[in-house]
Amino acid sequence: MFRSKVKTILLAVSVTIMAASLISYPQESFQASIRGLNMWWEIVFPSLLPFFIVSEMLIGFGVVKFIGVLLEPFMRPLFKVPGVGGFVWAMGMASGFPAGAKLTARLRQEGNLTRIEAERLASFTNCSNPLFIFGAVSVGFFHNAHLGILLAISHYLGNMCVGLLMRFYGKDERLTRSGRHKKFKIREALAALHRTRIKDNRPIGKLLGDAVTSSIQTLLMIGGFIILFSVINKLLFHLQVTAFLANGVDMVLSSISFSEMLSIPFISGLFEITLGSQLISQVQEATLRQQAITTSFILAFSGFSVLAQVASIFAQADIRFRPFFFARILHGFFAGIFSFLLWEPFYIRIAGSNVPQDAVPVLLQGGENMFSISHFAIAELGPLITLSSLIIYIIILYRRQRV
């Protein structure tokens, strides 16, 4: 009871301080809000919406169940999750935060995952997508396409290590029959696909409409968190809280011979990874290796903005947040360690003196790589896609309310 009262007081005081800060720094808060809105409007919404809609339709048509039966022999021994986890893992890597959490919650609601399996799966299916790592971070901020390869490999290797470690988390809540999933069973997978489609007897138009409305509702929630944490990050800077926290980070960075100038960008990255990555790239006192390791950590941790989005999604599906938060810390350390270990044997060989400055891997040829071109194309067309999608969403809601 006492802890509950203390929590209530702390929450009330925190919200009051935030309200007072908004009044004290209206211009700064407005600029931070616009920055968060632009990020959601131009990049996040148009890049995530197609994945969310297609994922909902794949679940409804039974394709995810089909994939789950096929991937059971791979996912169960490695990560102790059903085969549908392979679909979530692939979609999470392709679309980025917080797609893995949304799909995990959706499958949990459908009864395809137990609570423990959902918590295991969510721990390693939330990651940055290649578009963001290569287009925004490596090319956009660091102007170094080679660095994106190191960041991506470290990020996804760290993610896999988290999944392998989290397989030991919790006790299995259901037993699988011995030998059932030792072979790929195409016939069983096709039967599961058909059963799922028959069970979900919604017409295609209804299914598509539900997929659009569900996806846009989730993205509206995500946009609210992005704007909120963009403002919080700016207010903490002006209230000198960031500088205060940076003093403690300075001690840690000094102990590992890192530049202390990375402390404030690191704290900013803990709240919002895009701003943190940009600030880290501007620290001239740090070596590129130090910048890469620090960026790897905050990309893997994903920032409190994404964590808040995931917590909100989990609350709708009876999934505990604490294992996910622990996994994000593990992922941060794994990604940073891989960036450190792979720097000389991997990055130096690609971008070092033995390789001409204009020599670029196949995926990165042509001056700007395919990921950066895609990133900037989304930024150009993003507002139009967002506006059109919102209009369609309003029309669907209006028609359903009239029925």
Automatic annotation (TrEMBL):
<feature type="transmembrane region" description="Helical">
    <location>
        <begin position="207"/>
        <end position="229"/>
    </location>
</feature>
<feature type="transmembrane region" description="Helical">
    <location>
        <begin position="325"/>
        <end position="343"/>
    </location>
</feature>
<keyword id="KW-1133">Transmembrane helix</keyword>
<keyword id="KW-0812">Transmembrane</keyword>
<feature type="transmembrane region" description="Helical">
    <location>
        <begin position="48"/>
        <end position="71"/>
    </location>
</feature>
<protein>
    <submittedName>
        <fullName>Sporulation integral membrane protein YlbJ</fullName>
    </submittedName>
</protein>
<feature type="transmembrane region" description="Helical">
    <location>
        <begin position="261"/>
        <end position="280"/>
    </location>
</feature>
<feature type="domain" description="Nucleoside transporter/FeoB GTPase Gate">
    <location>
        <begin position="219"/>
        <end position="315"/>
    </location>
</feature>
<feature type="transmembrane region" description="Helical">
    <location>
        <begin position="121"/>
        <end position="142"/>
    </location>
</feature>
<dbReference type="InterPro" id="IPR014226">
    <property type="entry name" value="Spore_IM_YlbJ"/>
</dbReference>
<feature type="transmembrane region" description="Helical">
    <location>
        <begin position="148"/>
        <end position="170"/>
    </location>
</feature>
<feature type="transmembrane region" description="Helical">
    <location>
        <begin position="292"/>
        <end position="313"/>
    </location>
</feature>
<feature type="transmembrane region" description="Helical">
    <location>
        <begin position="373"/>
        <end position="398"/>
    </location>
</feature>
<dbReference type="Pfam" id="PF07670">
    <property type="entry name" value="Gate"/>
</dbReference>
<feature type="domain" description="Nucleoside transporter/FeoB GTPase Gate">
    <location>
        <begin position="44"/>
        <end position="133"/>
    </location>
</feature>
<keyword id="KW-0472">Membrane</keyword>
<dbReference type="InterPro" id="IPR011642">
    <property type="entry name" value="Gate_dom"/>
</dbReference>
